[in-house]
Amino acid sequence: xxxxxxxxxxxxxxxxxxxxxxxxxxxxxxxxxxxxxxxxxxxxxxxxxxxxxxxxxxxxxxxxxxxxxxxxxxxxxxxxxxxxxxxxxxxxxxxxxxxxxxxxxxxxxxxxxxxxxxxxxxxxxxxxxxxxxxxxxxxxxxxxxxxxxxxxxxxxxxxxxxxxxxxxxxxxxxxxxxxxxxxxxxxxxxxxxxxxxxxxxxxxxxxxxxxxxxxxxxxxxxxxxxxxxxxxxxxxxxxxxxxxxxxxxxxxxxxxxxxxxxxxxxxxxxxxxxxxxxxxxxxxxxxxxxxxxxxxxxxxxxxxxxxxxxxxxxxxxxxxxxxxxxxxxxxxxxxxxxxxxxxxxxxxxxxxxxxxxxxxxxxxxxxxxxxxxxxxxxxxxxxxxxxxxxxxxxxxxxxxxxxxxxxxxxxxxxxxxxxxxxxxxxxxxxxxxxxxxxxxxxxxxxxxxxxxxxxxxxxxxxxxxxxxxxxxxxxxxxxx
Amino acid sequence: xxxxxxxxxxxxxxxxxxxxxxxxxxxxxxxxxxxxxxxxxxxxxxxxxxxxxxxxxxxxxxxxxxxxxxxxxxxxxxxxxxxxxxxxxxxxxxxxxxxxxxxxxxxxxxxxxxxxxxxxxxxxxxxxxxxxxxxxxxxxxxxxxxxxxxxxxxxxxxxxxxxxxxxxxxxxxxxxxxxxxxxxxxxxxxxxxxxxxxxxxxxxxxxxxxxxxxxxxxxxxxxxxxxxxxxxxxxxxxxxxxxxxxxxxxxxxxxxxxxxxxxxxxxxxxxxxxxxxxxxxxxxxxxxxxxxxxxxxxxxxxxxxxxxxxxxxxxxxxxxxxxxxxxxxxxxxxxxxxxxxxxxxxxxxxxxxxxxxxxxxxxxxxxxxxxxxxxxxxxxxxxxxxxxxxxxxxxxxxx
Lengths: 480, 399
Fold this sequence. Notes:
The complex is a heterodimer. Helix content of chain A is 56%, strand content 5%.
């Protein structure tokens, strides 16, 4: 295999398994055997790499206080203020958490781990207005991102964020709430059509008593657990939640469902069922070892086939993180990252519903595409923002109050704002080989195969910096 | 040619002939008679969960006054429509609209197993799903997908906003979002943008790159069409000063200039009134009513009211009993406003909600919101609602 072939293979691998690659690293890795490169990518540091922004001691105190305030019937003005203040702080912390994660993705030395975390973030989609819960779930998804799927699934199922979001807190003996049980099978493991309504009912009974206590830790409450016999997929027993998860994992349909989703995220929106089958078999035989699954996929020949290269639409997170990594961008007002996410349709930690973001072509409509093509010049040239996006429905209460506060409540005045970001051009240009031609730069920055038209467009240009901005503003840059 | 303009966001170039492959050529080729008798639908979204009981007030029912001691609207302040119900006093602008017969209120609209999360319930209303079903396409988007005679152009559905709502996204077709037609036109006519599209035949496949180019081409041709059609029209009507009224003014400009768009989407947010509701909601209802009244009268002046149907929804209503902060918490069924010049039933369409038969403090719905959608799809947009809503819903007699 020629060095040039390897160059494109490694570039593709790092675009899918991470958020792109610097030219110097690419040059170095191209000289290695691709198998070695993959092994290195999969080698994870042992130490934890948690998000630690939210202080759990402070959060737990807040949670206790909040519970106390909610239990009271008549609140004094002081208590009402306290309650509002907690909500305000939680909203602020939630935004900070979002930014902390995006910046972690931008700066991480272990891109595969963050990419996997992003995958699980969409798979186990969840919203929580409690930033500690959200951080905890995100850390579970990161710590187990390449480990055992079973451990991941059990820990997610026990996380307060998910227990709250899917109402397992209300799931009690004699009064089962089926929300979690249904999504566990429909969206997290087996997929639609592989279970019956009766299975959902029996599984819901098995998860009764899985709750979190008032300071936000998982607790099993035996007195709320339904101990009667359940029949689940033909098996009869006094099952609890973990038994149910084991039975679900015994079914190869689960391995297939996860493999298909992984394939669609990392390889192609349109799954090739033969390739999915290959992955599913390996995943099942490895007893749900996620690293094994990823290795199988990255080492498959078809992973590098032309139809799978430069053919996926970047998610907004991939697009923003990739652009920022590529050009070493620092954001002086990182809140702009939230505005960009929400305008592009992927506000992390706020999926549209438990099914996650649908992805693929649904990212793109006329306005989101126009915006994506403008963002490189906004971010890299510190341009002015003239779009405001929509309010998140969860922020409506805040909007409602701020409107009364403004005397001129019915006139919406939006000040023009700047992205206020800085690309490190000397650093970026320093990574490029001396005398690189504009066409070679395009070949490096874009994943789809270069066409004559693009070659002509970048060919007659002065300056690598401007050419880079132009290339990043092309529709081809939306693909990875 | 200076292609940098796009990158600096300063470029402006007059409209030029843009290369558009023939199979994507939009309405230029369309016969004029196909376009006559154009019916428009305007969807208005009130975000945050508008409190329906303080919008259309059941002033004839004592339970309302018992449950809402701090926030109830006094009978003498209510703009009375029937012996039972009337409008919030901030909605005075709609009195005339009501008296003209251009308004009908559908009471108590909801769906089975209601969800009280803003996000989820909005999702359900926008996609038209069941409450335990997750759809990734919106009901108007699926109408576009159905490829009916009247819904084949990218500008068939326009949202006056910076970004496109899920309601407007189909599997293969999506509406277009724009706040200002001139700005979109400027952006798509930027030399850099045009250079990308120039003579581009190689990308028009079904793959993702082809999809990106197709979206660019459609955006560009829609932007030209919308700008060139609407710029000649000058409205003489006066609208109140508000963001919401501005959106409606833009819609009126589009409708009155004869744009071949079928669905418009606008929204007004801030209705999540958990605290000190009366003033907040009052401000919003005033904006809503004054904007709407100006819009409808403007359409009437331009002879477009007969061809226009406006429907207003919110993701849920609020609980019957107020909370301790003189506000209301998330509830279930809600009323919907319908406006237009060709309403079959005017005033109040159905019975007021029953306040004595509640489901743990919440209204029980009388009508499924998909019956309202179904009626609009069948009778106004001329498609079979089962094709869009995945099953057939019985239609109602308001149009």
